[in-house]
Amino acid sequence: MPAFVFGLPSHVLVVHAVVVLVPLAVLGALVVALWPAARRRFGWLVVGITAVATACIPLATNSGEQLRDRLATTDLIRQHAHLGDELLVYVAALLVLVAALVAVDQRRRNRATGDLAPKVAVGALAVLAVALAAVSAVQVVRIGDSGARAAWADKQYTAPHPEHRPTG
């Protein structure tokens, strides 16, 4: 992946896919875990979104490493990189859980037996998916916050001067 695209660091562009898709995957995982009718209708769509989100994370990590190598290393950048490296584990695990939840639920519905084990498995997978969705959401917020601090911590802002205000 090129380090720059149209003069911008590619990380700044690629990271937006993660910022949009991971929270969307988290919301989708919560919906299909907690709402069986949505699971039947949208379960595989959520699995697909979560898979794309998972695939985007290494691209963001790689482009972030390329950017980091061109910057003076600070504690804020190190913290951001460390947090970013952890996200793939959480979202990949969420992908596996959501896929298992949808597959087990679909199999349970297709068999339509009175067996309690598939219902217990669906319930357990749903609880784990909710927990991992929460962890993934918290982690993506922590990464975004640390990235913003790394990029903007040394910048000083002031109120705009009256002569710089737009008219109209």
TrEMBL record:
The chain crosses the membrane at residues 12-35, 42-61, 87-104, 116-138. It comes from the Bacteria. Residues 7-158 form the DUF2231 domain. Keywords: Membrane, Transmembrane, Transmembrane helix. This is DUF2231 domain-containing protein. It comes from Saccharopolyspora rosea.
